[in-house]
Amino acid sequence: MLTDNPAELRSPAPSLFMRVITWLIARRPPVFPHDTEGFHRRMTGRPLPADAPMPERFRRRFVVEEREVQGQKVVTLHPQSGPAPWHMLYFHGGGFVQPMFKVHWPLVAEMVDTCGVSITVPLYDVVPEAPHAAQDHLADAVYAELAEAHDPARIILNGDSAGGHMALALALRLARNGGPMPGKLALFAPWLDLTLADPAIAAVEPHDLMLKIGTLRACGDMVAGGRDPASAEVSPLYTPAEELAALPPTRIWTGRHDLFIVDSRTFVGRLRAAGVDAKLYEYEAAPHVFMAITPTREAKDVFGLLSDFLAA
């Protein structure tokens, strides 16, 4: 059954902690250069990116499993009590070109603790050192293994930014290919259109501390390779309605100072028009992937809503 309202403003004003953190973020070097030339300079001849290592204390806090799939490391965190009823497959963000960030580990850990889920995190090879297709192949393989060992109806796909794109793209491939569908889909500030074609995005850009349109378009072109970045294959925002209709219940969380909020609003509308139970939660003045700032009021609200989503 469809949720009553497609979008809900959960935080009409930023918390004091969020204000402080965003003030600090604005004074640090950006994760991505704010201009196209700077992006290309950083990507040219860079050292092979390395994933931030999982904190060693997690081995005492969780039941940790580590393995390799297609030559890439995959980490699973279970609660201390063991495998949970729900299992999340989580894809980290970073524009498809950055490895696992240090801040991703506390985000994953908080979801294990707060939501009582087991979480599997593929540490995928990044573009351009590896083709984007390799990321999709790894996602398919990890999900296939998980679906053999766990009821697919109790699997939730999740990810932030480019990782949200990966989670959604995986669900769409499963729908097209007739694979076992996950029970739910959760997306944190997903990158839905690699071309950022909607002109309304320009009005948000001055408020976004991390993302800039030109940089993202350059990154999108690199990720697309020889494919059309505006195609549904590369940009899920343009997926036909008949394919969207096969998706499971979906929730999206995005800050209002995030370029991706414009496409998230459009996408939720398209999902609901296709008959999917979908809802968007918005947070005033919150930056890109704000839920990774786990101590904030806003992040805690996200984790509470995610827990409720799993319990429904």
UniProtKB/TrEMBL annotation:
InterPro entries cross-referenced by the UniProt entry: AB_hydrolase_3 (IPR013094), AB_hydrolase_fold (IPR029058), GDXG_lipolytic_enzyme (IPR050300)
Coiled-coil residue windows: none
SUPFAM superfamilies in the record: alpha/beta-Hydrolases
Keyword Hydrolase attached: yes
Keyword field: Hydrolase
Domain Alpha/beta hydrolase fold-3, chain residue ranges per copy: 88-291
Any one GO MF annotation of this record: hydrolase activity
Name of this protein: Acetyl esterase/lipase
